[in-house]
Design a protein that fits this description.
about 350 residues; alpha/beta; TIM Barrel; seven-stranded parallel β-sheet; two-stranded antiparallel ribbon; 9 strands; binds coproporphyrinogen I
Length: about 350
């Protein structure tokens, strides 16, 4: 990473991931490239979501929008976690104002056997091309983050066939046929590790694993069905110094284990307090987060107060990356997101003196 650091004009995010000294706290926003931006919606009028993901020029343009408009300290490549199940052979559609749908969901070993083993350099070449192009167009302004879903979160979508409220199908699957579930999780872990390695090779400066549905599991099931495979991925990723971030939503009960999973950064949702987490897990990893995304519905004063509360809770310490505790919501005003970025940039300086 030292090579990358010297080439980047703004390397605050990468330094914070490694718990090195920074002049102010870096900030980026999960789901920062997307529907809350009118500039994104204008492009979306012309191309559907999957076409945008598959056209490197469009993906690069949308990835860079929040760097220009909101002023974030890192870009995250525009794509989706569901490109992996699609590459494995599942038909994917984004249903307008409903979300993703995966056809013919996976329910047994026969279904698992029809999934293809993927080679990211062939089947997901369009994402890698988008990464290289974005990296070139960013021209060292800020680092670029690559990402993937965790095996557990990907399997949830593959078995449910899309988003869910009750998550009945995935629970039926793991409790009735755990053997097949583990076979699928293992395949997904290999695919994700290869995919993230290829993204780093293509130019990603860091990678984030999204375990959005980790918190659906009991503590012991989380270890068995999710954490084990996140650890496998991290041990297999080919990287020099590129940081790995793990976001496991709702997994407050496994912070010590998460801090020891091999990740450089643990991203926290808003139900935890940074000072308490730091005390509990020590200084091993950097922490990312964790403003409640709905605070951005509030007025400027509310946003400032809540952001400062988080900066104070972390205190005078290296290793904090400011972010939301989950993705930005589509009906947030862009000016409020920009205000948050400005507040963090100015108010965090006093926590990094000396
Ligand atoms: O209509 C549209 O324009 C599509 C909306 C959209 C967007 C902008 C979807 C559908 N995905 C994305 C982009 C996306 N997805 C990014 C882009 C980069 C950025 O952060 O700016 C990222 C990182 C994701 C990751 C993703 N997709 C996750 C993990 C993060 C999280 O928010 O928990 C998940 C769970 C998905 C699945 C998905 N894709 C899209 C939607 C609406 C969903 C959620 C579906 C559900 O309700 O379960």
């Amino acid at each position: 990473m030292e090579d990358f650091l010297t080439k980047l004009k703004n390397d605050l995010f990468l330094r914070a991931c490694k718990r090195k000294k920074v002049e102010r706290t870096p900030i980026w926003i999960m789901r920062q490239a997307g529907r809350y931006l009118p500039e994104y919606r204008a492009l979306r009028q012309k191309a559907d979501f999957i076409k945008m993901c598959k056209t490197p020029e469009l993906a690069a343009q949308v990835t860079i929008q929040p760097v220009d408009i909101i002023g974030v300290d890192a870009a995250i490549i525009f794509s989706d976690i569901l490109v992996i199940p699609e590459a494995m052979g599942m038909k994917l559609k984004m249903i307008e104002s409903k979300g993703p749908k995966l056809y013919d969901p996976i329910r047994n070993m026969n279904d698992i056997n029809r999934l293809k083993k993927i080679d990211p350099t062939k089947n997901l070449k369009y994402v890698l091309d988008a990464v290289s192009l974005t990296k070139k167009e960013l021209n060292g302004r800020v680092p670029l983050i690559g990402f993937a879903g965790s095996p557990w979160t990907l399997m949830t979508y593959m078995v449910e066939g899309g988003g869910s409220k009750s998550f009945s199908e995935i629970k039926k699957f793991i409790y009735n046929d755990p053997k097949s579930a583990h076979i699928l999780l293992d395949k997904l872990a290999d695919a994700v590790a290869e995919y993230l390695s290829a993204k780093i090779e293509a130019g990603a400066d860091a990678v984030q694993i999204f375990d959005t549905w980790g918190g659906l599991l009991s503590p012991s099931d989380f270890e068995e069905f999710s954490l084990k495979y996140i650890e496998k991925i991290i041990s297999q990723i080919k990287r020099k110094d590129e940081p790995v971030i793990v976001f496991a939503k709702g997994v407050h009960y496994k912070l010590n284990k998460l801090a020891n999973c091999g990740a450089d950064v643990i991203s926290l949702d808003w139900t935890m307090e940074l000072d308490k987490v730091r005390k509990k897990i020590g200084n091993k990893v950097a922490l990312q987060g964790n403003l409640d995304p709905t605070i951005l519905y509030g007025d400027k004063e509310k946003i400032r107060n809540e952001a400062v509360k988080i900066l104070k809770s972390y205190g005078k310490n290296n290793g904090h990356i400011f972010n939301l505790g989950h993705g930005i919501l589509p009906d947030v005003k862009p000016e409020n997101a920009k205000w948050l970025v400005d507040v963090v940039k100015s108010e965090s300086r006093i926590f990094h003196t000396k």
